[in-house]
Amino acid sequence: MRTFLVLAAPLVLLAIAAPASAQTVDIAVSPLEISTEIGAEHLLAVSITNRGSEPTGPLVAHLVVIDPSGGASADAEDWTGELNRPLTSLGAGESISLDWDIKPIIRGDFIALITVASVDDASLDPASSPAVYFMVTQPTLLVSGATVPVSIAVPLIILAIGWWMLRTERKRVEELVGVYPNPPVSRAIDR
Amino acid sequence: MNATTIVAGEEISGTWFRGWGPWFAAVVAVAFSGIAIALGYSGQLNLLDAREGLAVVVRMSIGVGALLVVLSMADSISGMRDRSTLEPLLLTPITGRSLLGGKLLAAGSGWVVVFLISLPYLYVIGDGLGTIALAVGLSVVLGALLATTFGAGAAVLSIRSRTNLQTLGVGLLGLALLAIPLLLPASVLRNPIGELLVRADPMSAAQHLIGALIVDEATLASEVSWFLSPVLAALITSWLLWKSARFIELEPGI
Amino acid sequence: MQEGRPAIVCTSISKNYEGHAALADVSFTAYAGHVTGLLGPNGAGKTTLIRILTTILQPSAGTFQVAGFEPDQANEIKSLIGVMPESAGYPKRTRAIDLLTYHGRLYGAGREEATFNAVEMLAAVGLSDRRADRIGTFSRGMRQRLGLARALMNNPRIVFLDEPTLGLDPAGQHSILELIDELAGSRDVAVLLSSHLLAEIQGICDRAVILDHGRVVFDAEPTQGLSEIFHKVTT
Ligand SMILES: Nc1ncnc2c1ncn2[C@@H]1O[C@H](COP(=O)(O)OP(=O)(O)OP(=O)(O)O)[C@@H](O)[C@H]1O
Ligand SMILES: [Mg+2]
Asked: Domain C6-90+156-234: which CATH class?
């Protein structure tokens, strides 16, 4: 009985392992923790490896952003310019490295994942990278105390300048009427 | 004093001392004040919003300035034709080039005034961002390039149009066409045709530059190629104006 | 009548508009110190001829000399001539004196000098008391007077007047014609005066040219049968 178990165990393991062997793609990602500010760009180094003995066929990698608080929805599309990255088939043991640009756009804690699926082979199970934890804070800036005074003063200054211009013009016109004496008609013609 | 400065002086005093200039300037200042107060309402701003706000002021100073220049230059010749005031001017011994040069300078004063008004607002909104010098520089360079481009373009139209209505119609259509790339989604930049379109249009190239340099904090070196179409457009329209202004017809194409 | 220096020499000028001829082979000469009348019914080509001689319209054929300058010396010609166009508009919000001062400066006068000349010219045409008013407030006749003043701002040697008395009351017509007479007589200016009124031309002109359908049909002193030919043309 014991012998049987010892002999059978590898078989059972094999049997259990057999379906799992369909997943042949391994995804590594770094870094796994990012503390950052809104708007800062980060590069995720992603490495995808075919652990199987067959070529994978064409693959597609996809960025997922999860908001575990379930509050504000994290739309991955806003975090990166490239949501999907099509990949060519990886041969047995072959691997490929990708750089993924990510720019968090809202404040909070988020989980980002890279998943890889086969484009046309349903028997190849989708694979997922380890979770990358984003802690995003929002940098703030104190608004200049001069904002309100400036916003009130500038239009007033301009109105004052406009009023001054009007007055200058009015004075000039008064001068035109007053200062030059009317010349006698004959003198004007005989000029 | 040469003819260009005499024309410019007359037009400038017509606009600023005897015209609607000061009241218009006050309205622009009130609009800037509105933006500044709305942005600063809560007393603090996140950095991205502050940068966006700064970009809005820059865009507004360039856009309103260019619009002013377009409107006055569109009126420059065909407007005088409509009011029959062109003939007496053509009869004086000033060249068409001096006349239009003077009018372009005077129209440019509208942009200069809007730019000067924007300065205190750039200062309060950009306080602490460290990008005020960049915003001022972009306002000057892009503002001058776009004002030249649109002013000279409108003047060429004005010289060649039969009526002022025709100038305004064709001019507004042209502006609308140039504004289309502004409405395209950012993703078109990822295909070569889309990028070419956005780069070739001086309006959308300027818009991209403001976004990239002020909001996204890209380096000037990485974006410098985007200045190509605004510079080219200013040169080409100025050259066209130089050629068109040589002989101004009293009644073109009648 | 003794003839002075030729001021305008017009040689075989033609102007075609899309096939139809506004001017056909027009030749005549006008002299300094003389008033030359340019007579003709509506559409005869008077305005077209004046625009060509004042270099703002290109002739289809022919050439001319104005004050001794050829058509391609437009700026030299323009600085020596004064023109009152047929249908000049005026900037409404501009003040009369400012308009004249601006024009004087475009001819190279300094601001002071131009302002002084403007005051004098406004007096000469009887607009002294309205000189600081906006042109938009002027009556049609007052604008006409202002147009004449503007034409004289550069102290021209040749003056082109395209129907200058249009819209003037009899007193206004009289004073403008008197002013024109003075110009030619005491200042040795050549005046080319267009009109479709025979009486106007007969009263003041030393010489008359009648245009009809773009052709010269009379070119002599008004005493030499002007009215017969004019009546033939207009009826
Ligand atoms: N821009 C134009 N295009 C086509 N034809 C024109 C143009 N200007 C004038 N004409 C034609 O040229 C001819 C002469 O016109 P012009 O204005 O010189 O006459 P005019 O003698 O001044 O007449 P009026 O006494 O009515 O002022 C007319 O037949 C007119 O229709
Ligand atoms: Mg006429």
From this structure: alpha beta
